[in-house]
Amino acid sequence: MLQKINIPKIIGHRGAKGHAPENTIASFRKAKELGVTWVEFDVKETEDGVLIIMHDDELDRTTNGKGAIAKKNWAVIKELDAGSWFHSSFSNEKIPTLEETFLLLKELNMGANIEIKPCPGREERTAIAVGKAIKEKWPQELPPPLVSSFSMDSLVTVKKVYPNLIIGALFETLPDDWKKIILKVQAQTIHIDHEVVNAKMIQEMKDAGYPVLTYTVNDQKRARELFNIGVHSIFTDFPWKE
């Protein structure tokens, strides 16, 4: 039985990635300021198992640190500057933990698409930790989160940990056996690159009962085209109030 889920049309990608350093408290606050009601963000683990909001496997691109996140303890990572790379006005912005982010979402009254982004080889371990965290600490005042991943192993695992979770399957392109995959991971939504979709494909997924969410759409004209062919929601670096 599919749960009913009310997903907004516009979702801020990694917060408001085009306006503030991605996957930070500042980025989530900016998304709220711009009028969106949901944000998407990525979760991975430090060496000592702390869940943090981070996209890359390496620290280099978005912090003043270097090297693999899977080999760094939280005590090191929490001291890093995750804002200056974007703009000096965000100097000393920190990498948030998943728990800190939950508290912020409660404060801002925002929903979320939580993407499990495991470091290599941690697909199950990270999924277990994320499932437990949501089960125990997700603010009950908020709508249930949508949990997605490119790792189908992570999705299968997180659903076992917390069967009530609403799952979204992430694809770069739509595989021929997508229906089989969707059933295996018990997904309720399909997330796919907007550049590969067409009206026929969208209709096929909708006819099978799956809302389609496309990433990453930074042009409002393109967003309208996608909505017109049946896309349910878009992820954007430059969120706007619909």
From TrEMBL:
InterPro entries named among the record's database cross-references: GP_PDE_dom (IPR030395), PLC-like_Pdiesterase_TIM-brl (IPR017946)
Family annotation (Pfam families): GDPD
PROSITE patterns the record matches: GP_PDE
A single GO BP: lipid metabolic process
Span of domain GP-PDE: 8-242
Transmembrane segments: none
Descriptive protein name: GP-PDE domain-containing protein
Source species: Silvanigrella aquatica
Lineage: Bacteria, Pseudomonadati, Bdellovibrionota, Oligoflexia, Silvanigrellales
